[in-house]
Every structure is written in structure tokens, then in C-alpha cells.
Amino acid sequence: MAAWRRRGGLGPFEQELLDGMAAKGYAPEFAQRLFDQISGFGEYGFPESHSASFAKLAWFSAYLKARYPEHFLAALLNSQPMGFYGPSQLVQDARRHGVQVLPIDVQYSLYDSHVCSAPGSSRQVRLGLHMVKDLPRASVGLEVLSDYQAVGLSLDRHPLSLLRTQLAPLRFSTAEQLNQACPDRRLARACGLVTTRQRPGTAKGTVFVTLEDETGSVNVIVREELAQAQSQALLQSRLLGVYGVWQRDGSVCHLIARRLVSMNHLVGTTMSQTLKTRLAEDIKTAMRARDSGRLETLRFLQAAIKQREVDERTELGDAEVTSIIEKQVKQRRESIQAFESAGRTESAEKEKSELLILQEYLPQQADSAEIDAAIADAITQAQAEGAQGPALMGKVMGLVKAKLAGRADMSQVSAQVKQKLNP
């Protein structure tokens, strides 16, 4: 009847009811009074099934409010906005009934309001951060990645578990699937966070990479030819996809890489760190892994950064740290050339290993097309500003270095600039 009233559907039944009752011998006044009573009930009445449902909810609510007032309050606060009563009224009523309500505290509050009293103690509810206006709940992904930024690990979900739905269409197997079930010499593909890169001097240029996902680790072998051809993906990827052949010898398993793909775009900027923070974390990782070669290189770099900060009495940002890394990269390249010219292969390999480690901390390297375009733009700009003769070379290099800092070998760029200015 309530639905009929809202739609104006009860009116047509009035005359039908009056006529029918008159035909049955009822007085018109009685029939009209009966219809008026039916109409009046339609203004507030609803079915018995609704009444029973509301009564049940009212009974449960009353029981919880009487026996567990602190839990009842926390639940209602976390369900806002709802009902007739707002947070202020709920809190005031709870305080009148013996519940102590504690204020929002960045050290103790969770996102939701929660009961914080121990059994047998006074009833207490700590207000949650959700009550701070315009403060959204952090996504699971953001919480996990923030953990990795702060301490280098997370006790929550692994980052790869958050990306699994995006990786599944690409048919990347998990570490567990590969290590437990993939047969020998089968084509396979894996994707994970790069936790280690090692290039031992005795490995003839081979790079050993460890990928980590939510189920375990995959050991990847990258031969020298592939490492050189895909050095950018190998060195710059924090999230790396590897296509190759699975090699199994008993319990020892490796993925022999045939193609490398950077998957950094799936991670996004939330995993970005300052270079100094990343360096400090990687030093700890190298210590735990007892990787003496990597540890020595990273500590030498960290010492150079700290010395610069002491000398200049300032804290270095990523740009200044990058310049230090570039300088050390240049030194390694010069040493490699000198050792190879002198026939000291072992020393040259050691320098190459250190170079590989340092390059991990440089921005994604520019390709030849980008370098050519940067040089052409710089020459055009320098000439438009009136630079000539020896000054033109310096002006062009300054413009190119500002654009490609940390992303190209400036000695090679300098040679290209000279060739273009003096064809």
C-alpha cells in the first residue's frame, strides 16, 4: 500500500471499494471510513516482514550497546556516514555510558578507530586517522612500496603480488612454478625485482642476476654478448622480465637469458628512492650476501659522497651524487683501457665488474638517436646565441651535458661534437 501511495495508485480502488461495499449492503459512511483508515495506514505502515527485520536489528544493536559499548562505538564510527546520529553524538553518548574516547594520535592511531583497552581494564576507543578530513586510506600497494623505501622489505604483501594480474597476461611464471615444476631445456619466462647483479672477474663477462617475486627467487645467467647488447635493460631495470631457457640439474636451476625486458613502467614512481638511500640499502644487502667485490665498490662510492659532503658542508642531492658516479665511471673506463693495453686482463675484468655496478645507479642511458638530436639542438642554440670558434665547442658541450647528464659517456659525446663542428 505504501508503494501504491507513492505512485498515486491507491486512488482508483476507492470507488471500486465503495461500490462493492454498497452492493453488499454496507452504509456509505462506513465504507468511506474504512477506506480512509486503509489510506492512513499506507502513510506509515509497512509489511510485517520489514517489521521483523527492523526488530531483529534493533535487538542486536541494543545487546551490543549494552554489553560491548566500546566495540559498538568503534564500529559505528568506522561506518560513517550512516544513520541519524553523527560522530559527535555517538562519542558523547558513549562517554556518558562509561567509554573513554582517546584522541587521534599519529603514534597510536590506526586508520580505523579501534578498541585499545585490555581485558579487564577500562573501556577505551582510540579515534582513527580516517576522521581527519581529506586523509585517504593508503592503498595496499603504497603501503608495501613505502615499506621497501623505508627498510628495504615488507612484512605485508610482496610488490609482485600486487602486479600479478598485470603479469599474468604476459605469461610470466612465478619462481615457485619454475623451481618446482619446469623441466630441463624448456622455454621459460620470469619477472621479478632485481635483488643482485654480479659479474665475477673469472666468469668471462657473464652476469648473474637474482630475480625475486612473491613466491621465491630465480637465478638468471646473462652471457656477455647479451649483457652488452641489452646493457640498458640489464643495468637500469628494478623490475626485470627475462625470456630464456630453463636449465635444471637436480636441485640446481637457472634461467639462461635470451632476451631482457625492463618492466619498470609497472612499478611506477612510488618505488623511487634517493640515490644515497638506495646505496645504503644495497651495501647492507651486499654485506648479508658476503659479496666482497660489490661491497668494496659501493663502500668506495659512499665514502666519496661523504667526503664531498664534509668538504662542502652540505647534504648532496641526486644530481650531485650522479656527478660523483659519473666521475668514477669515467675513471673505470680509463683504467680498463689502460689495463687492456698493458695485457693485464684480470685487472681489466675487475674494473669492468666495478663499472657494471656503478652504472646501475645512473639514469637510463640515452640511445644514439637521442644523443644525435641533443647535439644538433645544442649546436643550433649555441650558434643562435652567437658562439663561435673554440667557445662554440664549450657552449655546445655545456648544453648537451645539461640535457644528458648521467645518461651518456661525455668523452664519446665530445668526440661526436668535434666531428660535427669540424667535418
TrEMBL record:
Entries under SUPFAM superfamilies matching the protein: GatB/YqeY motif
Residues of the OB domain: 191-252
Domain of life: Eukaryota
Single GO MF descriptor: carbon-nitrogen ligase activity, with glutamine as amido-N-donor
Matching InterPro entries: Asn/Gln_tRNA_amidoTrase-B-like (IPR003789), DnaE2/DnaE/PolC (IPR004805), GatB_Yqey_C_2 (IPR023168), NA-bd_OB_tRNA (IPR004365), YqeY/Aim41 (IPR019004), YqeY/Aim41_N (IPR042184)
Any Pfam family: YqeY
Membrane-spanning segments: none
Record-level GO BP terms: DNA replication
Signal peptide: none
Similarity comment: Belongs to the DNA polymerase type-C family. DnaE2 subfamily.
Protein name per its UniProtKB record: Error-prone DNA polymerase
Organism listed in the record: Steinernema glaseri
